[in-house]
Design brief:
Strand content: 15-25%
CATH topology of the largest domain: nicotinate phosphoribosyltransferase
Radius of gyration: 25 Å
Helix content: 25-40%
Length: 394
Amino acid sequence: MKPQMFIFGPDDIKRGLATDIYFIRSKEILEKKGLCNTLVRHEIHCYGLPKGYKWAVYTGLEEVLSLLEGKNIVFYSLPEGSLFKEMQPLAVVEGRICDIIELETALLGILRFYTSVSTKAARIKKAAGNNHVIFFGLRAQHPAIAPALDRAAYIGGCDGVSGAFNEALIGVKPRGTMPHVLIIVFRDPIAAWKAFDEIAPPDVPRIALVDTFYDERVESLMAAQALGDKLWGVRLDTPRSRRGDIRLIVEEVKWTLKMNGYDHVKIVVSGGVDEEQILKLRDIVDVFGVGTSIAFPQSIDISMDVVEIYDEKESRWIPISKRGKLPGVKQLYRCKPIVEDYVDVPNKTIICKDGKEAKPMISKFIDNGKILIEPPPVSKIREYVLQQLNYVDL
């Protein structure tokens, strides 16, 4: 049997192939019992965040719009990049049950994947403060989702992402340094650094990887002496088996560079970086390269449940839900992100503590398959996320 890639393309996903078998069986039952035309409203919400999390970042909306475009569905949503707390509504899907049921798996998968990655990226960026964060985590996930992974990380607050495809696909210029393999093939760090300096585009910062063959302090000084003022920074990607106290290693490197007149050289640290390490190092490190912790984040539990059903006889929407869920469509009213939010019924006037009127956050994005609000570029969504992060703590 010829090997193959076990992945779906966008058209397969939009056709409803990426679904669970019980939805297929349920649709068949509804069709045979004449219930396919039942109008329902599903609410998408988060009823619980990971332990220690106070907020999450809602992302994946653009892909959801692509999924639902052309379908006989009405879709309401928060803007992409909105911060939210548990028990808050995120979106509403309205339409015939048989038009929605096969898409639930894909819709939730998109939102949960994106939101989980973006939330972790935002937590990392919040911990880093003014220091830069570059996402290096593509190798930790399936290559089929590489563009989505970089997009989610960038929206969440990362200052750069490494995928070579990013400028063409999401409008973000990729960033990166150099791999160990380059130095190993040269068998000589200095020769590798000089070759990189000779051939890499002029606008690429000269960041030398300094932990391949010798002590980090030794290789950092070697790199500074080899490249001089052209050296922008040194990257420490020390294996865990050799690491010890990474803060002490960084302090040794910084001191050695300073004593030899190279205190302009910036410090980049990568390899197993998470919020805890960043908080301990952000006063002495300029850039953090983060991979696995963003690529495999704690999952944000996003659910989709029927909260209203249309009664043809009474010609009105009837609130209904399963146990443990709150029936009825809801609106999120915002005064300050997370700090002052209110959940209530739609079309209500909520007055904030400062006397101003709260903003209703959930808007109609799709009406019977037609997109009403075009998605903004990722740079604007990222700016929106960073603005909100000013209001929250880790």
